[in-house]
Write a structure and sequence with these properties.
With 209 residues, this protein is an alpha/beta fold. The chain has two domains: 77 residues, no CATH class; 121 residues, no CATH class. It is 48% helix and 17% strand. It has a three-stranded parallel β-sheet, with no helix packed on it. Strands 4-5-6 form a three-stranded antiparallel β-sheet, covered by helices on one side. Helix 2 links the parallel strand 2 and strand 3. Helix 4 packs antiparallel against helix 5.
Amino acid sequence: MIPVNFISTEFIDKNYKELVVKDIGIMGMKPLGGGRIKDARISLKYINQYEKIIPVIGMQSREELAQNLKFINTSGHLNDKDRRIISSINYVKKDKYQKKYSILKKKIDKLGFISTGSVMKVYKTCGNPGCLCHKDKSKRHGPYNIWTRKVKSRTITRTLTDEQAKLAQKCIDNMRKAKVILKQMKDLSAQYIESYENNFSVDKNREKV
């Protein structure tokens, strides 16, 4: 069984014709999109385009059974009005993707400067062998703000003032936040790409196969 509805069309658009050629029937689950589709009539009309698909609908009463049987037997096929309704439902979904992406872009814009690496406070020994720093760790000199980062596979180290260290750490924190946001943007973009043609447009010339 696979989900079959006009929101989740990826599998059907890609595989239906091949299944028909091989004479393989399909049991279509979630025809109402797991509750996201409120108009059962249009959903069943959409499924009626496909002779090899039998919708499997969850029902909790005899009344729901009778209603669904009535829809299946009388719903017919999609007309232009139905297609416009489906398009409007899916364009709302498209708009949600764009709004979520815009929110993520604004978060990126607010971050400011970014940087890789790490900043640490380090205590060091000096070049004087007779200095106490060589015998007693508590007597070591510092602290020094050491900024370390990779540039073309080379480790670059710089000693920073306190103010520079604060700025560098803020930039490093911004980079971490940016990576999280960019991953969210990438995942959202992948969902948008996979759904773009399938879910955001309706082929008015689709023929019953």
